[in-house]
Specification:
By secondary structure, the chain is an all-alpha fold. It is built from 10 helices and no strands. The chain has helices at residues 8-36, 41-45, 53-61, 64-98, 105-108, 123-137, 139-142, 144-171, 175-178, 190-208. The longest helix is centred in the middle third of the chain and has 35 residues, at 64-98.
Length: 221
């Protein structure tokens, strides 16, 4: 997606930085009322499929219509997230196809319409990435534990992809020095933020590798 930004060296880091306070404030506004009105934990853990959000909202609001209204907010946020994820996945697929790194790269490297047109999109790459996402979603029909494991692994892989360039920047000798002349810089706070990011990702990887239920059996593993 950075390739479609006019000034990616400056605007992409700015977007990443601004997303943190916006997400923090929005998340606190949504999560704090839920924390203070959280229903009985054993009831939520007993929900089939391991997805108690709908039941939780219904118990908090005291009615199915209120629970649906709260869930619809999450659904709307999820839709916007799904759109951005599909766009990012399609561009990544197209980039691999452009570099001849996936099978049938000629098909998936095509751009619909004129490549010089700003509205042109990698339609074939979009269909491929979306089809794969739909197939992965079918796993839930066979095993909710396997689906939850895939979701956990995706978070681990995403965090690892963030940590790799940060680790290279910190441990590559003159990495931090070479970044001083970058269009966007964190200044004197850069080193501390890089170390904090690596520590958080390491903690996140350990956290998402743990089972959600104890004791662990063949179903919840």
């Amino acid at each position: 997606m950075a390739e479609e930004v006019r000034h990616p060296a400056r605007q992409v880091p700015q977007a990443i930085v601004y997303s943190i306070p916006i997400g923090t404030i929005g998340g606190l506004m949504f999560l704090l009322p839920i924390v203070f009105t959280l229903p009985d934990i054993p009831t939520l853990l007993a929900v089939p499929g391991g997805q108690p959000i709908g039941v939780m909202f219904t118990l908090i609001m005291g009615s199915q219509s209120g629970g649906f209204g709260m869930w619809f907010i999450v659904f709307g946020v999820g839709m916007f997230c799904a759109i951005s994820i599909c766009c990012a996945a399609s561009r990544a697929t197209w980039s691999f196809a452009r570099d001849k790194a996936i099978p049938f790269y000629r098909i998936f490297a095509r751009i619909s319409g004129d490549a010089a047109d700003p509205s042109a999109v990698p339609f074939n790459a979009y269909l491929l990435s979306t089809t794969i996402q739909l197939l992965l979603g079918l796993i839930y029909l066979g095993s909710s534990a396997a689906f939850n494991a895939f979701v956990g692994v995706s978070v681990i892989c995403l965090g690892s992809s963030y940590a790799m360039p940060i680790a290279i920047l910190l441990f590559s000798g003159n990495g931090r020095e070479e970044m001083k002349a970058a269009p966007f810089s964190l200044g004197r706070w850069g080193f501390a933020m890089n170390v904090s990011a690596l520590l958080w990702v390491s903690f996140e990887i350990v956290l998402f590798s743990m089972p959600s239920v104890i004791p662990v059996d063949q179903v919840t593993m």
